[in-house]
Design brief:
The chain contains seven helices and seven strands; from the N terminus they run E-H-E-H-E-H-E-H-E-H-E-H-H-E. It is α/β, with parallel strands linked by helices and about 240 residues long. Strands 3-2-1-4-5-6-7 form a seven-stranded parallel β-sheet, with helices on both faces. The longest helix has 26 residues. InterPro entries: NAD(P)-bd_dom_sf (IPR036291), Sc_DH/Rdtase_CS (IPR020904), SDR (IPR050259), SDR_fam (IPR002347). This is 3-oxoacyl-[acyl-carrier protein] reductase.
């Protein structure tokens, strides 16, 4: 079986992951919350290219209560790949952030993903070569000022992958984190051209990452040959902050 669910499939990195996995023979659940049109368009694109595979959209609000999460996860067809490519940030000083903003960042980036993993565990342990991949960040290893809560959530994902990866390693369920540096996506489009040029100057590779630089590693982590790699955080940052 090769069926994966991509949470955050409508984002720049999420779409690249979907296209990469589809080309590799995966059927996919394409998760979205507010961007239904993008999810449907992506599903239609992939169905036309790969008619022998299934591409289904899945709407889920990561602010949902536990009952709703369980109902939606219980409705899924079996999957053996789970990719968390979603995430939000708030570029601000901690003292200037509303308490509700802090709570939302932690819930969407960390708490809800861990609950989903817990709900999916019985399904993932039933099949060989199951995979969980989180999209982390270089800021999970070297935290960023003005994004301290975001950095904390990404660092926590790496710690979770280490611990949970050990729990389930004997079942051939691997748990890893791909931690990109600066990627040319809408999340970084909030910064000025001058700021992004300064960042490029700091990156030894001389450019921002493309979404495909990230999706390549997700595809390889989902391969059966990756059974012996678990609990790791792989930094894909052009040599920037590692």
């Amino acid at each position: 079986m090769k069926r994966a669910i991509i949470f955050g499939a409508t984002g720049g990195i999420g779409q690249a992951i979907a296209r990469e996995l589809a080309a590799d023979g995966w059927s996919l659940y394409l998760h979205y919350f507010s961007q239904q049109a993008q999810a449907l368009a992506l599903s239609e694109e992939l169905m036309q290219q790969y008619p022998k595979q299934d591409f289904m959209t899945l709407k889920l609000d990561f602010n949902s209560d536990d009952k709703t999460l369980k109902r939606i996860i219980d409705s899924l067809l079996p999957v053996n790949g789970v990719v968390f490519a979603h995430g939000i940030t708030d570029f601000n000083f901690l003292g200037s952030q509303d308490l509700s903003t802090i709570e939302t960042l932690i819930k969407i980036n960390l708490t809800t993903p861990l609950k989903i993993v817990s709900l999916l565990e019985p399904m993932l342990l039933k099949v060989d070569h199951s995979r969980i991949v989180f999209l982390g960040s270089v800021y999970g290893g070297q935290a960023s000022a003005m994004e301290s809560v975001y950095s904390a959530t990404k660092g926590a994902l790496s710690s979770f992958a280490q611990g949970y990866g050990r729990e389930v390693a004997s079942s051939h369920l691997t748990v890893n984190v791909i931690a990109p540096g600066a990627v040319a996506t809408k999340m970084n489009a909030i910064f000025s051209k001058e700021t992004l040029e300064q960042v490029k100057d700091e990156i030894p590779a001389g450019r921002l990452a493309k979404p495909e630089d990230v999706s390549f590693w997700v595809k390889n982590l989902l391969a059966p040959q990756s059974d012996y790699l678990t609990g790791q955080t792989i930094y894909v940052d052009g040599g920037w902050l590692v």
